[in-house]
Specification:
Layout (H helix, E strand, L loop, with lengths): L1 H22 L5 H19 L5 H13 L11 H13 L9 H7 L5 H5 L12 H14 L3 H26 L2 H12 L2 H9 L4 H16 L3 H12 L9 H8 L1 H19 L8 H13 L7 H13 L4 H22 L5 H14 L10 H9 L4 H8 L16 H18 L4 H8 L1
């Protein structure tokens, strides 16, 4: 019976990945969450098995191919990707005009595409290599959304193949075989990368390459790879202090200068057409206006609201950002002699605790590096953070603070358990 169950789990994962990824509208939260948690249960049971690498890769590939031929149903970011791609192809910088401004200037832009954008009043904040991907994909697809989504998924496959290659060269064979199922079969990793087309996967492939090169003492090339990672997702730069302290003052300074310099080179062709003030304003929205699935911020927001009578995000958000930066600098120094995987998990945790917006795809890196570092709370969080999709089933995307509180409470308790703080209670009980 046990053998039969294990044979059924791969099929169950395939069916549910197709169902959740492609068929369930995010507004149907009860069906969406039920399917996801069933999928996650099958994943937890299946990932514990000893896998033949070939069989694992075949199953993982089949799960990814399920997404091809369908538009994302849990995210609308694809429409902004194509919009930015059209801007670049027409010689217009995505950093120069908001979609609303651009539509007034050039009525040939698709009204239908514009109507699907989730932030038409803000200029793009996606970094240079992401913009290259958008432009290339839009050129090859002619702007067709279905073809565009397929091309983006091919890019995901290539990036993930590169990531597995770096993983193979970073870890001993036994550890590699242990980590791979937990990573490749993780439902959140699959849905947010291939289902929703978020670019964390491309960023993480270059970030892992930077780690491999650093381990091999090729620190200058490692700096270039970190810059490439940040050129897909800027938050890769929060790891720069760790690299700096790990390498020491002299090499660390050169490493940092090389990374920032290379990123600067990628931005140079775009500088003449960047509205700097508007770009900084759009980037600052993540700290001053946007709020979703936050932890510490929501507690401070409530306190400030009781005190002032209004939402003080414009002050609380930047304050938490500054506080997180200070803690990241501190923990980067304290963990400078620890392995990168452990450092990444704790640095990213601090960043997200201080954030006003924590979307599910933000923790994909924690799934990767947590699996390497034998930290299990990121895996637990990858199941609970999906509760945030509950908001999409409500009018005006109203969040459930009860579910958010449940999510963070369980994760916090498990973190304390993993840190073995609970030994205090065990020793007290023993007395």
């Amino acid at each position: 019976m046990r053998t039969l169950a294990f044979q059924l789990f791969p099929s169950l994962l395939l069916i549910l990945s197709a169902f959740v990824c492609l068929s369930v509208d995010r507004s149907n939260t009860s069906l969406l969450l039920g399917a996801y948690f069933t999928m996650f249960a099958a994943y937890m049971l299946l990932a514990q098995r000893s896998f033949n690498i070939k069989s694992l890769l075949v199953l993982a590939l089949a799960m990814r191919l399920m997404a091809f031929g369908f538009l994302p149903n849990l995210s609308d970011d694809l429409y902004r990707f194509v919009w930015d791609g059209w801007c670049s192809l027409r010689g217009i910088s995505p950093y120069q005009f908001t979609p609303s401004e651009l539509l007034l200037r050039d009525t040939s832009f698709s009204q239908e595409l514009f109507a699907q954008l989730n932030s038409p009043e803000y200029i793009s904040v996606y970094p240079p290599l992401a913009q290259v991907s958008f432009a290339m994909t839009t050129f090859l697809s002619g702007g067709d959304l279905m073809i565009s989504s397929g091309i983006f998924r091919i890019q995901m496959l290539l990036a993930e193949s590169l990531l597995v290659f770096f993983l193979y060269h970073l870890l001993p064979e036994g550890k590699f075989k242990q980590v791979l199922p937990w990573l490749l079969l993780n439902p959140l990793w699959l849905l947010e990368s291939y289902g929703n087309l978020h670019f964390e996967l491309l960023m993480l492939s270059f970030l892992l390459g930077s780690v491999v090169l650093l381990v091999r003492q090729k620190w200058l090339l490692s700096a270039v790879f970190l810059a490439l990672a940040a050129s897909f997702k800027l938050h890769a730069l929060i790891l720069l202090p760790y690299f700096f302290f790990r390498l020491g003052w002299k090499k660390g300074a050169l490493f940092s200068a090389a990374s920032l310099g290379f990123i600067g080179l990628l931005y140079i062709p775009l500088l003449p057409n960047i509205e700097i003030e508007a770009f900084i304003s759009s980037f600052g929205l993540y700290f001053k206006k946007f709020e979703f699935n936050a932890s510490l911020y929501y507690m401070l927001r409530w306190i400030r609201f009781e005190w002032l009578g209004y939402n003080d995000i414009a002050r609380v958000g930047p304050f938490l950002a500054a506080l997180s930066t200070a803690f990241i600098l501190f923990i980067s120094y304290r963990l400078r002699k620890k392995d990168f995987s452990t450092a990444y998990v704790w640095i990213m945790l601090i960043f997200l605790i201080g954030a006003t917006t924590v979307h599910p795809w933000y923790i994909l890196g924690m799934i990767l590096f947590g699996s390497i570092a034998d930290l299990r709370f990121p895996l637990l969080w990858s199941s609970l953070i999906f509760l945030s999709y509950f908001a999409y089933g409500n009018e005006n995307f109203q969040e459930s603070l009860l579910l958010i509180g449940l999510e963070y409470t369980i994760v916090l308790l498990f973190i304390l358990y993993e840190l073995d703080y609970l030994k205090i209670f065990r020793s007290f009980k023993a007395r």
